[in-house]
Amino acid sequence: MTATYTFDDLKRDVADGRIDTVLACLVDMQGRLMGKRFQAQFFVEGAYEETHSCNYLLATDMEMETISGYKATSWEKGYGDYTMKPDLSTLRRIPWLEGTALVLCDVLDHHTHEEVPHSPRAILKKQVARLEAMGMKAFMATELEFFLFDQTYEQAHASGYRNLKLASAYNEDYHIFQTSKEEEVMRAIRNGLQGAGIPVENSKGEASAGQEEINVRYADALTMADRHVIIKNGCKEIAWSKGKAITFLAKWNYNAAGSSSHIHQSLWSDDGKTPLFFDKDAEHGMSETMKHYVAGLLAHAGEITYFLAPYINSYKRFMAGTFAPTKAIWSKDNRTAGYRLCGDSTKGIRIECRVSGSDLNPYLAMAALLAAGIDGIENRMELEPAFEGDAYGGKDIREIPHTLRDATALMSGSPMLRSAFGDDVIDHYTRAAQWEQEEYDRRITDWEVARGFERA
Description:
It comes from Pseudorhizobium flavum. The chain has 2 domains: about 20-65 and about 80-115, Ubiquitin-like (UB roll); about 125-445, Creatine Kinase, Chain A, domain 2 (2-Layer Sandwich). Helix 3 (about 120-135) runs parallel beside helix 10 (about 360-380), helix 8 (about 290-300) packs across helix 10 (about 360-380) and helix 11 (about 405-410) packs antiparallel against helix 13 (about 425-440). The chain has 14 helices and 15 strands. The chain has helices at about 5-15, 40-45, 120-135, 155-160, 175-180, 185-195, 220-240, 290-300, 300-310, 360-380, 405-410, 415-420, 425-440, 445-450, and strands at about 20-25, 35-40, 50-55, 80-85, 90-95, 100-110, 135-150, 200-205, 210-215, 220, 245, 260-270, 330, 340, 350-355.
């Protein structure tokens, strides 16, 4: 069961000396936790109302560089403040950090106190509100994959990320003996997350040497996104505390499988009691609502890919025969398809997006999927027949964009996304994608040097 940790609980823990630090965190464009460590007494006496951060936090790249070209913030505008408003419903103890609690914050305009439209949490909340107005509620689950290494982050950095030693020497998919060797880390992750109020289902070995997967119980979309960012941060912190390192890169090595974050989706009545995707009398148990929703996902598959695969590296994962999809089609219980029907003919019927990588921002990914699905429902889009067979070898069928450059153009030019998110939001993330491409285009890779040093 999910633990409920209230503000009153925090105040008691602070008074009793059990909690001395509160992490107040916003989620940045990359899905990372950014914020402040509060002396707990100060937090409960007033900082729980609000705090502040520089507004560049939602206009940087992975290196925290200030980037030109953003309308929302710049050197010309002086890089002012955002207001961070703690959402006390997200408050929780963090068992793997001594005497520590954490709360996620909404990001507000410093002057109007309205939510900043391009903040990831606000983007998802807007799509959730659209569903609520339709009498619907989205439930989602993300399956996070990652690689575990025997070096520390410091050692990996010092080596230039070369000659890294994986926690396993061989494919450990569902492998009990190999994962027994990794239990010091994985048990700490499972128990730590459970203690932080995130209901863990299981962990398992994945389809490559050193690859792991952590699965937690599904929840409403916003709660699941909140869990997702805490899981990623927690996995890294726990691994670091054990002298290990974890990467959520979508494709860390050419010879290794990619890492995904499959997103399971279903719609229910607003009271959460009636599955709106299920019709016991329909083929596969798919209701008309589900058919329209999935049709929307497929119709806008190219446009939303950026939010599922946001970096240059993300597109290295889409390789045939690796369990990562290359085609944006749907199929029944078929792991070669970009969208897989699961739980057919049961109340647990859902659609699994397999395009999404472990490097995504969950708020942006879920919001994009919901926006596409809502458009399918509103326009009563007709679902194409299910694909059968090996999608890798399928001819003349819808493909996933091959590069970040392609995905950026489709996202920027999408009338659906501009209507759902707003022009300023899409322009903001278009600039983020363009900068990622510009940075890559001017870099010299080891592969180029090795290939051409002598022979060019």
